Amino acid sequence: MKKIQISPSILSADFSQLGKEIKRLEYAGADLIHVDVMDGHFVPNLTIGPPVIKALKKNCKIKFDVHLMISPVHKYIEAYSDAGADIITIHPEATDNLSASISKIKKLKKKAGVSLNPETKVDIIQDFLDQIDLVLIMSVNPGFGGQKFMPEVLDKIKLLKKIQRQNNLDFDIEIDGGINFENSKIAIEAGANILVSGTTIFKSNNGDIKKNIDLLKSL
Length: 219
What we know:
By secondary structure, this protein is α/β, with parallel strands linked by helices. It has one domain: Aldolase class I (TIM Barrel, Alpha-Beta Barrel).
């Protein structure tokens, strides 16, 4: 079983203190920094672009786990790579050619991830699982933080684990959306090894992010 990693979502951080917030996460033992990029088109919200990621990356040694919720995504991949993304995760619905977009990420020497929305089936990426490093399962509809976890997506994680074993594949399975101390356990039992959490990490236990990260890792 892969080591459980925690990728705190800075969507729940204090945006007026983002540099300091990332330093806090680094000192608290975060494994990755999850950056949600939204364009107001593919999802109904706007967040941050490459210049902000580039500025934040200068002060951080942890890898940046960048989730691109933008469409069309292909032409923006290089900009986010140049900004400092270490993992670039895209949605199949946001590109005309998923294979070409995955190849572009890999050519830039970044880890390639593909994200599945709650209604998106595993079938759409099954032929690409030997080319990618990570599958991100959305357990809420993307676009806003603080939504309620959708347990029905756990069946997709179980299916991915089955495919992984049968074909001797080695991609990470990440889950994002409403992850807390209760449902993180069932997500791990289903097969997830990277947990994205925002509200729980930044708001629980009076904002003691080290305690919250340690709790999520130990469940």
